[in-house]
Write a structure and sequence with these properties.
Length: 159
């Protein structure tokens, strides 16, 4: 292994550490879940989280806002993201994409391509993560029950 190459878990924890150092103090501490090389950060409902996942077999690192709960709740959260898409996407940049990921899951994410996981890539990903978390974590906060249906979310958001 080249001297500057990191294993996926090393990369994950380094990027997390660097991102958290750079977060503004106003961002509340999340709940943290690690599943080998997947980091999920949530602020209430664990099904709505920010996820970081290096994928060496695919040569990508994914960073994203994931909605992995019931389809109706995911659609409501995605509708809230879509209602704020203009300013949100302008702040995040063109590398980010909102998509229907599976029949029920939704995500707003971006990827970073790589040949090897390095400290420099971890720094780049961490900087993007620190920039994105203050913009994205509000979409992970508990949603009042009436807004959990897509029709209710659309009614409160207007045309």
């Amino acid at each position: 292994m080249p001297r500057d190459q990191l294993k996926a878990r090393e990369f994950l924890f380094l990027a997390e550490e660097l991102a958290f150092r750079a977060l503004p103090p106003a961002v509340p501490a999340p709940s943290r879940r690690v599943m080998w090389t997947i980091l999920q950060l949530s602020w209430g409902d664990p099904a709505s989280h920010i996820e970081l996942q290096p994928q060496p077999s695919r040569g990508i690192v994914e960073l994203g806002l994931h909605f992995e709960g019931p389809a109706e709740a995911n659609d409501a959260r995605a509708a809230l993201v879509a209602a704020n898409a203009g300013p949100l996407m302008a702040a995040l940049g063109p590398a980010w994409e909102l998509e229907v990921w599976t029949p029920s899951w939704r995500r707003l994410h971006r990827t970073f391509a790589f040949d090897i996981l390095t400290r420099r890539l971890a720094e780049t990903v961490a900087a993007e993560m620190a920039r994105a978390i203050p913009l994205l974590y509000p979409f992970c906060l508990p949603v009042p029950q009436p807004a959990l249906s897509l029709s209710a979310a659309e009614a409160t958001l207007g045309p």
